[in-house]
């Protein structure tokens, strides 16, 4: 008697990327580790007060290659961050380099600290 194994599509492992968030005078700088994620496999969505980052790795061997062993495999990185009204949503920028996603969330102009000039009277 032969056993039939059902071939199910497996979803990749999901990870929350290591993240550093720094607040500076010009806004918030967020750094996320996303090794193996290409720019075309990265989505950044802003909905209401939630910024969601999704990145997916894809490992496809070349034509004359095959995996002898695979421990890292395909995976998905997902991280959501709540943002407040002090973030200028229209000026958010993202850059992906060397497996690190850098997001810059600038503060709205009215929230930026400013120096008050003192005049002699």
Rounded average pLDDT: 86
Calculate Rg over CA atoms: 21 Å
How many structural domains are formed by the residues? Answer: 1
Largest sheet: 4 strands, mixed
Query: Can you list the strand order of the major beta sheet?
Result: 1-6-5-4
- According to DSSP, the number of beta strands is 8
Termini gap: 101 Å
Instruction: Determine the strand fraction and express it as a percent band.
Output: over 45%
CATH topology: Immunoglobulin-like
Stretches with pLDDT under 50, minimum 5 residues: 4-8
Shape: elongated
Q: Which CATH top level class fits? A: Mainly Beta
Level of helix content? under 10%
Order of helices and strands: EEEEEEEE
CATH architecture: Sandwich
Q: Classify the secondary structure makeup into a structural class.
A: mainly beta
Number of helical stretches of at least 4 residues: 0
Provide a compact summary of the structure.
The chain contains no helices and eight strands. It has strands at 13-15, 19-24, 27-33, 37-47, 50-57, 75-82, 93-97, 100-106.
Please characterize this protein's 3D structure.
The structure is a single chain. The protein has 121 residues and is mainly beta. It has a single domain, classed as Immunoglobulin-like (Sandwich). The chain has no helices and eight strands. The protein has strands spanning 13-15, 19-24, 27-33, 37-47, 50-57, 75-82, 93-97, 100-106. The strands form two sheets. Strands 1-6-5-4 form a four-stranded mixed β-sheet, with no helix packed on it. The protein has a four-stranded antiparallel β-sheet with strand order 2-3-8-7, with no helix packed on it. A hairpin with a 2-residue loop joins β4 and β5 (50-57). The chain is elongated.
């Amino acid at each position: 008697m032969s056993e039939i194994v059902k071939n199910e599509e497996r979803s990749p492992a999901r990870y929350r990327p290591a993240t550093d968030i720094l607040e500076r005078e010009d806004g918030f700088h967020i750094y996320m580790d996303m090794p193996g994620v290409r720019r075309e496999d990265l989505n950044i969505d802003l909905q209401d007060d939630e910024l969601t980052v999704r990145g997916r790795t894809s490992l496809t061997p070349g034509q004359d290659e095959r995996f002898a062993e695979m421990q890292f495999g395909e995976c998905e990185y997902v991280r959501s961050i709540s943002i407040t009204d002090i973030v200028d949503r229209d000026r958010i920028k993202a850059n992906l380099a060397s497996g690190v996603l850098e997001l810059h969330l600038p503060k709205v102009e009215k929230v930026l600290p400013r120096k008050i000039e003192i005049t002699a009277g």
